[in-house]
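Box 4.2: Ligand-aware structure prediction
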Amino acid sequence: MQAPEPPLSDGVVHLRLWGPADVPAIVAACQDPEIPRWTRVPDAFTEKDATEWVATHEPKMRAGEELSLAVVAPAGEVLGAIALHIRHQGVGEIGYWVAPWARRRRVATRALVLLSSWALATLPLSRLQVTADPGNLASQGVAERAGFRREGLVPAYAEIKGRRVDRIMYSQLAG
Ligand SMILES: CC(C)(COP(=O)(O)OP(=O)(O)OC[C@H]1O[C@@H](n2cnc3c(N)ncnc32)[C@H](O)[C@@H]1OP(=O)(O)O)[C@@H](O)C(=O)NCCC(=O)NCCS
């Protein structure tokens, strides 16, 4: 898989590859307990974790497993993260977080619209998913605002940090 070229942008948010210079912003954002609460980000997220995390993106992208992008403002400030994971047989899944300093400004919605439109138009995907914890109303609001269809509760859908969890499933289908 290759990153979108030119990088995706709607003039308000830009999606670009991560680099080592982003580590301090990633660490700062992930100190907010809401990010480890609802995502796979570990509870105590250090500079070493962020450095390793950034370094894994390139090999995962080359292997066609994952496309992980920084969501940035026009001036370059890191606003959040968004990633497309290729699950199996034409199914992709998008996850995201937004830094506490950039929330409630439609950053996640904009980033999700950009990445999902590109992925469905460009990659051999039949189905794109967003899954959210039943208690994560913010993430469900993002999926709905970005045009994903709510399919319902999928019991025991994922394992996150050693726990089997239910997920609310959202989808967009190709075509
Ligand atoms: C979920 C998250 C990504 C939302 O990012 P955001 O950029 O603030 O979201 P948006 O501004 O695009 O919100 C779009 C819609 O989602 C809903 N929403 C967003 N934040 C919300 C909140 N805190 N509570 C309830 N609804 C919320 C609203 O419907 C909102 O539309 P509105 O602004 O017209 O009310 C952000 O809160 C976050 O990073 N949370 C922690 C990590 C996380 O939960 N990741 C998703 C895991 S599945």
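In the box above, the bound molecule is coenzyme A. The chain has a mean pLDDT of 97.
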